[in-house]
User: Fold these one by one.
Assistant:
Number 1:
Amino acid sequence: MRFCSSGSEAVHAAIRIARAATGRWKVARFEGHYHGWLDTIYIGESPDAERPAAPAAPGTRGQPRSALADVIVLPWNDPDALAAAMHIYRGQIAAVILEPILCNTGVIPPRPGFVEAIREWCDRVGAVLIFDEVITGFRVALGGAQSLLGIRPDLTVFGKAVANGFPLSVVGGRRDLMEHIASGAVLHGGTYNGNLPAMAAARATLDALSADGGAVYGGITDTGRSLMDGLRRAGAEAGVPVLVQGVGPVFHMWISNRPSIDEPRTARTEGRSSTRCSPRRCCAAACGRSRADVVPSPPPTPPSTSRGPCAPRGRRSRKCATLCRPSHRVRTGTRRMIQGGTAPPWPSECWGRPFAPNDSGIRPAAPATGATS
Ligand SMILES: Cc1ncc(COP(=O)(O)O)c(C=O)c1O
């Protein structure tokens, strides 16, 4: 394991290790997932979600396009697009990185079999599988999302909960991968790496979380479940259609009639979503405040799919331009489960039932370091 101060740094280290170990540059990632703000991984919205291609679009001003030359963006929960990318970029992909349970665009767990497919593809094409558990780590279970999904990545990144708010992040995994840092082939620097107050906080946190075999997770999960139930109940009582999706203490609420949402584009645009809730950041609905505080104003009318109401092409906002693109209309119109499916596409555990706490045990030019291009 290696320690640093922020999730972004730990993600950066994981990608560098993967590139050094494979001698390849391309990194596949998924739309809607967030892996920190650094130039090499932060992205904007994909211009065409149907055809994954590198380079990804920069997500912020000041970010050079060249930094994303080797980043491929794939749609989440779409095994066909995954397979297509693995064929197109065969022999070029160093790593596939994902939030194993997507928590940064709504909360969207993987469809059954999707992460398994990613694992299999990584094995088949020799890519390093990186789980970014900066949100899910030590939160959804002692063993993180990987223990719930039963899938072991090659590298894992932790942050946030690991030191209960102290600035600490971790990258760890397969010995042969981490060896690239231990041997000095890959540089991992940082003045505050492994700083003592943060390390002490992590030890105290992990001691508390693992006491009695992780018994505390039962309470955390129960609290999350009652918050989710409370939001649904509040919605029903107020006559407002409420969709709540989540895992244990991490969940998200939409004002929506949909039975579920399984891809980030819909998650982003659906109704007017509330804040992401957790027992530590609970929203008003579950706290019994007045309805006026709780029920958001009606959702904004989505931009028309016809060209009529839009501003002339040159003056359209980026969002409007995206929504008005024919490929977007086709895609959103044909999503399989969105149109009135009954069962959610992931295990019922993802809907708030408690998970058994489960230890996973994580198992890692003429550049100065093996992974810088
Ligand atoms: C999944 C995930 N990865 C990485 C990061 C980046 O972490 P940091 O903000 O500590 O750099 C975040 C931050 O929210 C995150 O949610």
Number 2:
Amino acid sequence: MFRIGFGYDVHRLVEGRDLILGGVRIPHALGLMGHSDADVLTHAVMDAILGALGKGDIGRHFPDTDPAYRGADSLLLLKQVVAWMRQERFVVNNLDTTLVAERPRISPHIPP
Ligand SMILES: [Zn+2]
């Protein structure tokens, strides 16, 4: 049996925050606003996995009202989601993501 999940997330660019995408800190004048590290790419991946598992979305599991997730490293939250996925004996077979941003240019930060 296989399942398909679709994740989507949006964060506003603001001054005074780091820009972290997929766990990579990208030098830029603006960063993403959010309760955690606001890693929008990782959040979308987490949402897709949770959706495929039928477990709701990241807001349900990691609410932005919980101080425990203030400034949280989203890769650690993703590890938790992957652990839940493995408990149900699923694996990620394929993953495709789309990042929408006018700037900064992301291509220099993608490994060849
Ligand atoms: Zn998010």
